[in-house]
Amino acid sequence: MIGANEVRAGKILIVDDQESDVRLLERALGDAGYTEVTSTVEPREVYDLYRANRYDLILLDLVMPGMDGFQVLESLKELEVDGYLPVLVVTAEPAHKLRALRAGARDFVSKPLDLAEVVARVHNLLEVRLLHAETRCLYDQVRAEQAQQQALERALLESRTAAERAELEHQRALARAALKADEPRGLVARSPAMRQVIELARRVARVDSTVLITGESGSGKERIARLIHEESTRSAGPFIAVNCGSVAETLLESELFGHVRGAFTGATQDRPGLFEAADGGTLLLDEVGEVSPAMQVKLLRALQEREVRRVGENRTRRVDVRILAATNRDLASGVAGGTVRQDLYYRLKVVELRVPALRERREDLLPLARILLSDAAQRMKRPVPSLSREAAERLAHFAWPGNVRELENAMERSVALARGARVELEDLPEEIRQAPSSAAFASGSVRSLEAVEKEYILSALALNDGNQTLTAEQLEIGSATLYRRLKSYGLIGARRANQRNESA
Ligand SMILES: Nc1ncnc2c1ncn2[C@@H]1O[C@H](COP(=O)(O)OP(=O)(O)OP(=O)(O)O)[C@@H](O)[C@H]1O
Ligand SMILES: [Mg+2]
Predict the structure, then answer these.
(1) pLDDT at 232 over 50
(2) To test ligand 1's pocket by mutation, which of 405, 406, 407, 411 has the most ligand atoms within 8 angstroms of CB?
(3) Is any ligand 1 atom within 6 A of the Cβ of residue 221?
C-alpha cells in the first residue's frame, strides 16, 4: 500500500492565471504537508513542465486567457500513453465538469474553492496515481518477466528445434547408413535375389566359417567375398584373393604356402606364401575347382590344421586365416566326376552363397550400368554420361553371359566412345547392339530354339545388309543351310515375289 508520506511527497503543479488562487492552493497543500508543490500562471508552459517533471498531479484551472484548460488537457494527452492524465480540474462552470472528465481529467473541484475538499481530492488522486504507478511498475516488471520468459521459451524452442534438427540429422544419418547397409559401397543390390545374397553374406561375415561362393563368371563373387571380409571382425586385416586356376600347378603350392631358399630352382630366398600374408585376415581361393587333386589334399590339410608348411621346409607355421572359396563351376558335379575331392568340397561349402547371374536380377541392371558408367568416366577423367533410352533398353534386354564384368567393360567402352553427354545405342559394343533380344529371359518364359534361331539369323542378316554369304560365314554355317533356313521362313519366295511386283 501507499503510505501517507509517500502521498505527501507527490509532485504537484498548480496551473491558474489568478495569482491569488495559486497562493491559496499552495498554502492549503503546504499546510496539509505536501512538500513538492510548484505552480505556474502561464498555461503555455504546462506541456513542457509536465514533460520535464512528470507531476503526480496537476491542479488545472479551466478558464484562462491565451490557452484554456481544455487545450492544456488536449496537449498533455500525447504525453500519457494510456491516456490517463493526473489532472484535477478546478472550475466554476458546472457544464465544464463533464467535458473536462471526457477530455481526460480525473476529477474536478468547484470554485469557489473549498480548500479542505481540494486537499482531500488531491490526496485521493495522488494515492490512485501512485497506486497506478506502482501497478504500472509491477505491470512493467511482469511484462519484463513475461518477455524474459518468452525469450527463454523462444530460446528453449530454438534449442529444442536444434535438438530436433540434431535428431533429424541423426535419423538421416541412420537412413543413409541403412541405405549403405543395404547396398554396401558401390555394390548394387536392388533385386530381391541380390539383397538376399548380401543379407546372408553379412550374417556369415560375423562367424569365422568357410564360405563357398558360387556363381557364373563375372557375377560378382569376389565382390561378395570382399564384403564378407569387410563386415567381419577381420576387416582391419588383409584381404587376399588368389586365382588358383591361373597359377601354374607347380607354382601354386609355393604361392599359397611359401618356400624356403633353394627349395627349387629360382627360389633364391625364403618367401612366405599367401596364407601367411593373409594372417589375421581373409584369403579368397578363387576358381578353387581348377586345383589338381594333389594340391587339393594340401589345401584340405591347411584348412583343417590351420597351419602351413613352406615348400622345402620341415616345420609348420600356424596361420589365423579365414578361408573363402569361389567357383563358377559346379563343384558337386566335379565331385561326381572325380575331379574334386569330396572331403575338400564339404570342407569348403560349410556355407554356400550363390551369386545370381545378372539376367536373373534385372532390377540391378540399370543401376549397375549407371554406377559402372560413372566409375569408368571417373577413371577416364571424363564427364559422366547418361544413358539414352534406346541404349538403356538394349542393356536391359541383353542376356549378359559375362555378367557384371561384361557390363563393366561395355560401360567403359561406352564412355570412351560417347561423343556427347549421352551414351547412344551406337556406342554400345556390337554384340550387345546386335544380339537377339533375350526377351525369353526377361519375361521369364522360354521360347523355342527354332524361334530364337530364326530371330538370331534374321538380325545377323540385317546387320550385314542382307549379305547372305557374309552372314553364313559369320554364323559358321554353309550358305546352302542359310538359304534353306531363309526359305523355310518364307523369306526367299516372298522377296522374289516382291521383286517381281516391283519390276512389273
Ligand atoms: N553388385 C555389384 N555392384 C557393383 N559392382 C559389382 C557388383 N558385382 C560385381 N561388380 C563388379 O563387377 C566386376 C566383376 O565382379 P567380380 O570380380 O567380383 O566377379 P567374379 O564373379 O569374381 O568374376 P570371375 O568369375 O571372373 O572371377 C568387378 O569389377 C566388381 O567390382
Ligand atoms: Mg573372381
Answers:
(1) yes
(2) 405
(3) yes
Q: Is 220 in the pocket of ligand 1 (CB under 6 A)?
A: yes
Which residues make up the environment of ion ligand 2, defined by Cβ < 5 Å? 222, 286
Query: Where along the chain do its domains lie?
Result: 4-136, 192-356, 359-446, 448-504
C-alpha dihedral over 241, 245, 249, 253, to 10 degrees? Answer: 20
Q: Angle at CA 318, nearest 5°, toward 316 and 321?
A: 130
Fold adopted by 4-136: Rossmann fold (3.40.50)
Nearest atom within ligand 1 for CA of residue 364: 1
Pick from 121-135, 395-409, 486-500 the range whose average pLDDT is largest. 395-409
Q: Across residues 142-150, what is the average pLDDT?
A: 67
Give the fold, CATH level 3, of 192-356.
Rossmann fold (3.40.50)
The C-alpha atoms of residue 426 and residue 417 are separated, in whole angstroms, by 9
| pLDDT band, residue 153 (cuts 50/70/90) | low
Residues whose CB is less than 8 angstroms from the CB of residue 75 and which lie 6 or more positions away in sequence, other chains included: 46, 47
Ligand 1 nearest-atom number relative to CA 287? 27
Question: Is the pLDDT at 415 greater than 70, yes or no?
Answer: yes
pLDDT at 364 over 60: yes
Closest CA to 348 of 228, 243, 210: 210
- 293 touches ligand 1 (CB under 6 Å): no
Look at residue 472 and tell me whether its pLDDT is greater than 50: yes
Question: Is CATH 1.10.8.60 the classification given to domain 359-446?
Answer: yes
Question: How high is the pLDDT of residue 4?
Answer: 81
Which ligand 1 atom is nearest residue 213's CA? 21
Tens of pLDDT, residues 87-106: 899 888 888 888 888 888 88
Cβ(231) to ligand 1 under 6 A?
A: no
For residues 99 and 143, what is the distance between their CA atoms, to the nearest angstrom?
34
Å from CA of 26 to ligand 2 middle: 113
- Does residue 411 line the site of ligand 1, with CB under 6 A? no
**Does the Cβ of 201 fall within 6 Å of ligand 1?**
no
When comparing pLDDT for 203 and 419, which is higher? Answer: 203
Whether the predicted pLDDT of 275 surpasses 90 = yes
Q: Count of residues for the chain?
A: 504
- State the distance from the centre of ligand 1 to the C-alpha of 336, rounded, in angstroms: 28
Q: Do domains 192-356 and 448-504 have the same CATH topology?
A: no
**Whether residue 215 has its Cβ less than 6 Å from ligand 1:** yes
Quick check: CB of 325 below 6 Å from ligand 1? no
pLDDT at 123 over 50: yes
CB-based burial label for 311 (10 Å; 0-12, 13-18, 19+): buried
